[in-house]
Inverse folding.
């Protein structure tokens, strides 16, 4: 990994992994002969996308090709890419204007106030790197004391992977990490010149074999909502449904909101709300 995206290498790996996950039946092709490798053959992708086999080979061998928007659309259809994967592919090849800033946004005070106004629901403000920029008292308690951590530790992926308190915090730990990595990969392609994001990814790949293994899956998915079962060391079992809100004026910022997923979890959040002490803007 380098300070910027190696577009050719990432494009090659991404297209190859998307090809290998498909079966002929899934794209309406007959199964002919014995297959020694998983997924579709390059010839089949070429047929589906109406490009030459040599073109697909050169793409997967990272020979520096930059497909046109038309070819990208054909590959998206051929490989049955999801909406998030399609956006990732276009971002990766820079077929859309780079209208998102690569440096750390100076987030407006209104966004931080919104996080506090959402109390008693736990809420925090994060950026595309998962850096935590602001939080309310309830979220601090849920996340084991955000207001006690040094600034360099305030990143949700770094906390999950490198803070020992979170080792057993998420009941479905690998799923949570896998989804976070898929989201970070989309951000990586959308911000190819973001040296700070690249440095974070380098750090996580080097420090966490778990992250390194899952990063190589090349999964892409932007997570707008979901569920996280937790085992809180102070309050016990807690399951939250999270929702991600995007401020229209700050596309790289996200407000993450937690709601209780069941009655037991609601009682936990009610207890946290009663005990939480309002904090200053994070």
């Amino acid at each position: 990994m380098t300070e910027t995206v190696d577009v050719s290498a990432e494009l090659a790996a991404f297209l190859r992994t998307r090809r290998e996950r498909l079966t002929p039946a899934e794209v309406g092709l007959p199964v002919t002969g014995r297959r020694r490798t998983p997924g579709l053959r390059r010839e089949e992708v070429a047929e589906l996308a109406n490009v030459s086999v040599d073109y697909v080979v050169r793409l997967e061998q990272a020979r520096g090709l930059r497909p046109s928007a038309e070819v990208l659309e054909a590959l998206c259809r051929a490989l049955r890419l999801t909406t998030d994967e399609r956006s990732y592919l276009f971002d990766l090849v820079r077929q859309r204007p780079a209208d998102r800033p690569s440096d750390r946004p100076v987030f407006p005070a209104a966004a931080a106030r919104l996080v506090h106004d959402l109390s008693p629901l736990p809420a925090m403000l994060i950026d595309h790197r998962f850096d935590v920029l602001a939080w309310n008292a309830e979220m601090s308690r849920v996340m084991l004391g955000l207001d006690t951590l040094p600034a360099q530790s305030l990143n949700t992926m770094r906390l999950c992977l490198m803070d020992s308190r979170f080792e057993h915090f998420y009941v479905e730990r690998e799923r949570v990490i896998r989804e976070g990595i898929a989201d970070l990969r989309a951000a990586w392609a959308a911000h190819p010149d973001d040296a700070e994001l690249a440095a974070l990814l380098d750090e996580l790949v080097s420090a966490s074999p778990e992250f390194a293994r899952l990063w190589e899956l090349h999964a892409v998915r932007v997570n707008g909502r979901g569920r996280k079962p937790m085992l809180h060391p102070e309050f016990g079992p807690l399951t939250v449904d999270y929702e991600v809100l995007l401020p229209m004026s700050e596309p790289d910022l996200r407000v993450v909101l937690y709601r209780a997923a069941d009655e037991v979890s609601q009682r936990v959040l009610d207890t946290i709300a009663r005990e939480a002490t309002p904090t200053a803007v994070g």
The beta strands are 123-127, 132-135, 225-232, 236-245, 253-260. Confidence is low (pLDDT under 50) at residues 97-104. The domain at 7-92 is CATH 1.10.260.40 (434 Repressor (Amino-terminal Domain)). The chain has two domains: 7-92, 109-275.
